[in-house]
Amino acid sequence: SERMSAASKALEDVERELKKVELGKSTADTELQLARKADDQAGKTIEDARESIGTAESELKRAETNLEAARKTNAASEQPLRSIAFSRDNRSVATAGDDSSVRVWNAENGNPFYGFEGHASATFSAAFSNEGSLISGAVDRSVIVWDLKASWTVERIIGAGDANSPLADRVNAVEFNPDGKWLATGGGEPTRGGEIKLWDVVSGKLARSFTNVHSDAVLSLDFSRDGKFLASAASDRFARVVEVASGNVVKQFEGHAHHVLGVSWRKDGRTLASSGADNVIKIWDFVTGGRKKNIGGSDKEVTSINFIGYTDQALVTSGDGKVRWVKEDGTEVRAFAGTTDFVYSAAATPDGRIVIAGGQDSVLRVWNGTNGELIASFAPLPLAP
């Protein structure tokens, strides 16, 4: 009996010790997993930090290059002006001087229109003709007549418009990357597949195709400010982001109940906006992939959205004839009156001072972005007989 009791007690002691060991092992395993996870996260954090440093260094070099170019341009322009002349409508002003160039400026805000180089020495006179041309005279004993209505010529056509075309069907969107070296096209055959392709601007050759991004026609494109990512919106109700270098889809944004008609990056690269045929604007956090805000205020399809400059404000158009300027939090900054029908698209200068939009009525309207006043309307020209 005593031996049995002693044996039982010894067994219980062993079991307790075994449980302690098992608990210790389990705790050690958990700590090991956490340590490995922390190590992986640390490695990712270090890699992200290195990438951020690399990006920052590239941005710094680019900024220094631009600054040096600006300094050279500024130094070259810091020479005496010899002649100033207003155009007949007083909307433009021409200047000529010792740098041998002739320049035309917006008389209202001072923004440059044209710069003409052709004289071999200081330019002493400039004047506008009754026909709208610009005439300049220089110390090199030359007089040059400059055509301010330069003609447009077709540089290149991509696609053949037939079964041999490299483009599957309609092209709904085109977008240059930030440095202008690449042109992205978006389209595809409705209900059968989306198409996104990247073209070399100089040669016109296809650089790459981004496959399996959308299952329906692509309707809008926008490059991130650094050119690393391309956002797309499509009829499949998704907005997606492709990493340009790899061609991989790195983020997808789901939530629209109808076609996604527009997409736009905020310049900070952390925020993306999409507009849909469900009458809604959605603001997305690119880093987390989550939705930050739903913005209403439209009675019909929200056809386009574009962030303005470096602000948190966007220009929005919709099928109810509205052109609006809204903040990222949904607050309406300004509405632009005068439209009479479905509006498809709008754009603003980076400083937001000029807004232009067009739609179903074929009228191009220009507004003062600071106060919403209509500046001009351009009706369609009659067709030649």
Plain-language structure description:
By secondary structure, this protein is of the alpha+beta class. Helix content is 20%, strand content 40%. A hairpin with a 3-residue loop joins strand 2 (92-97) and strand 3.
Write the layout of secondary structure elements.
Elements: H1 2-77, E1 81-86, E2 92-97, E3 101-106, E4 112-117, E5 123-128, E6 134-138, E7 143-146, E8 171-176, E9 182-189, E10 193-200, E11 206-210, E12 218-223, E13 229-234, E14 238-243, E15 249-254, E16 260-265, E17 271-276, E18 281-285, E19 291-295, E20 302-307, E21 313-318, E22 323-327, E23 332-335, E24 343-348, E25 354-359, E26 364-368, E27 374-378
Antiparallel strand pairs: 1-2, 2-3, 3-4, 5-6, 6-7, 8-9, 9-10, 10-11, 12-13, 13-14, 14-15, 16-17, 17-18, 18-19, 20-21, 21-22, 22-23, 24-25, 25-26, 26-27
SS class: alpha+beta
The parts where pLDDT drops under 50 for at least 5 residues are: none
The oligomeric state of the chains shown is single chain
What amount of the residues lies in strands?
35-45%
